[in-house]
Design goal:
By secondary structure, the chain is an alpha+beta fold. It has 5 helices and 13 strands. The strands form 2 sheets. The chain has an 8-stranded antiparallel β-barrel. A 5-stranded mixed β-sheet has the order 2-1-3-4-5. The protein is elongated and about 75 Å long.
Length: 280
């Protein structure tokens, strides 16, 4: 092999390794999804915990859990605010010789960044070693937020009113029973919203942005009265600003909304919003 070819191959290998490192260096957290075996338990072969330990040693902050909107309680504040700081890891395996483990790395856009498979005749540990050896070929991890992926989200209506302005309105106006300031109650979501009448509708606007792509004043829910007292048709803007159409029930100072879980077909969740202002 002549010198020119050797140089080209070396440059290619360096470029591949650098690109791989770039993709991983944009993530502050590694989220290892649960290996759930139902009634047998979770991660019974220790595969997920071994992957988690590997990334902890590399300097990542590791979370074992999901990546859905309903997983807020698992995440630190900055990851809740910007889900793109997370590198999401899915693990699959074959539980018979030759033992095979596949690890798939994805980002907040649900794009696959890398997939590595390790096979070994002995056990899962040896299969994992083959995967870790491939990962070790990349340069040392160093978090660089400039490499963190970004998602372009649709726009929602913004009503430019701050909380003091809204409280002054609630104090000086005979408001409808549904109008006021609300917080989520007994929920994994952490929302603070103000509901005001807007034409023939009621609009719930964000007072504390739930994520980096939400702003104060963005409309989170659009509600319309129905013929049934205390029942409203609702358009709920999810964290990614997609819309779910549902119904909301107002009883006293509590609004309940039932939503479909976008990550688990057929599963529903109830969001409770408790009025905290005005008091009467």
């Amino acid at each position: 092999m002549n010198l020119q070819k050797k140089i080209l191959i070396l440059l290619f290998l360096l470029s591949s390794s650098y690109n791989f490192a770039q993709e991983f260096n944009g993530f502050k957290y590694v989220v290892v999804r649960n290996l759930d075996y139902g009634s047998q338990g979770k991660d019974i072969n220790g595969i997920g915990s071994s992957v988690a330990d590997y990334f902890r040693l590399k300097g990542y902050q590791v979370i074992i859990g999901g990546d859905s909107e309903w997983s807020d309680s698992l995440y630190p504040k900055d990851l809740k605010f910007n889900i793109c700081l997370g590198l999401f890891v899915d693990i699959g395996h074959k539980a018979y010789p030759p033992y095979e483990v596949s690890v798939t790395f994805g980002n907040c856009k649900r794009e696959v960044i890398k997939q590595i498979t390790g096979k070994a005749s002995g056990n899962f540990e040896n299969a994992l070693k083959r995967i870790f050896n491939q990962l070790d070929e990349s340069p040392y991890y160093s978090f660089d937020e400039s490499l963190t992926p970004k998602i372009t989200y649709p726009e929602v209506e913004n009503i430019n009113k701050d909380e003091n302005e809204l409280k002054a309105y609630f104090d000086s106006t005979k408001v409808e029973p549904i109008e006021g300031i609300y917080k989520t109650y007994k929920s994994e979501l952490n929302l603070r919203l103000a509901i005001i009448k807007n034409g023939n509708e009621y609009k719930a606007i964000s007072l504390e942005p739930e994520a980096s792509h939400w702003k104060v004043g963005d409309v989170k829910i659009i509600l319309e009265s129905t013929s049934a007292d205390g029942v409203f048709s609702a358009k709920w803007f999810m964290r990614d600003k997609s819309v779910q159409e549902t119904f909301a029930n107002l009883e006293g100072g509590l609004i309940t909304v039932e939503l479909n879980n976008p990550n688990k077909a057929g599963e529903k969740t109830t969001i409770n919003l408790l009025k905290i202002y005005p008091k009467n």
